[in-house]
Amino acid sequence: MSQVPAATRTLRVLRYLAAQPEPVPLDRLARAVGLPRSTAYHLVDAMVAEGFVTHLADEHRYGLGVAAFEVGSGYARQEPLQRLARRPLAALVDATGHSAHLALLHGRDVLYVLEERAPGRPPLVTDVGVRLPAHLTASGRAILAALPANQLRALYPDKDAFVLRHGVGPASPSALRALLVETRQRGHAAEDGEITPGFASVAAAVLDHNGHPTAGVAVTYPSGPSGPSAPSDPAPDPAEVELIAGHTRRTAHLLTTRLGGGSPTGSARPTPRR
């Protein structure tokens, strides 16, 4: 038991350093993690010896070391989020009868990393490895709605940051902000025909332990005839769409729980409809 507090302090130091834009002085680190300066010194000294912290002697600052990078790289190689999401996404498909997918934010795009296709449903543009503009997709909007306001402004500083696929969707920072306010009020994101005419999607964000959106879970379904490639299946009625959205929100919440996640830190917490 005596090792548990030390391990907790070590992890707090790593988490704090990982969140900083640059190396920090020892005094600031000690205050941030709630340690006496002498204790913090001995702790980071041991972490320097193990390669998890780097001491920049000329600057009297501490930053992450190579061993911390190796841990992060190992996390990426093992794809834990995709592994955690595979069964919940399959259950989401079973519950809704429609295809589901998981997407990550990469710059102003979303990258689709997992897809579970419902039996008999047509292939979608949201295949694994595909990138699409985040502000046009339901999964992207779910993620953007949970981002801190300053990060959203950095991603979309002006009208030049926006592209359209079919002439619909937000085309300015103010239009995007208004759409994301609606998304948070609704409790989930939505799009209809902005990616593929005749198809609509709903999505919810998966949050990490800092309340930061790490992924979006989405379900895509037919929304009515629109052009030669439109689906032949009937579009679900509003009550069915709300049921689909509810299943999607619960799946995102399940993944958030499994990641040890919590409420968004950068924006108002979504209030799901009942």
Automatic annotation (TrEMBL):
Q: In which domain of life is the source organism classified?
A: Bacteria
Q: Which UniProt keywords apply?
A: DNA-binding, Glycerol metabolism, Transcription, Transcription regulation
What SUPFAM superfamilies does the database record attribute to this sequence?
Answer: GAF domain-like (SSF55781), Winged helix' DNA-binding domain (SSF46785)
Give the start-end ranges of region Disordered. Answer: 219-239, 254-274
Domain HTH iclR-type span(s) in chain numbering: 4-66
Quote one Gene Ontology molecular function term. Answer: DNA binding
Q: Which residues form the IclR-ED domain?
A: 67-261
Annotated Pfam families: HTH_IclR (PF09339), IclR_C (PF01614)
One GO-annotated biological process of the protein: glycerol metabolic process
Which residues belong to the signal peptide in this entry?
A: none
* Keyword set includes Transcription regulation: yes
Purpose of the protein: May be an activator protein for the gylABX operon.
**Protein's recorded name:** Glycerol operon regulatory protein
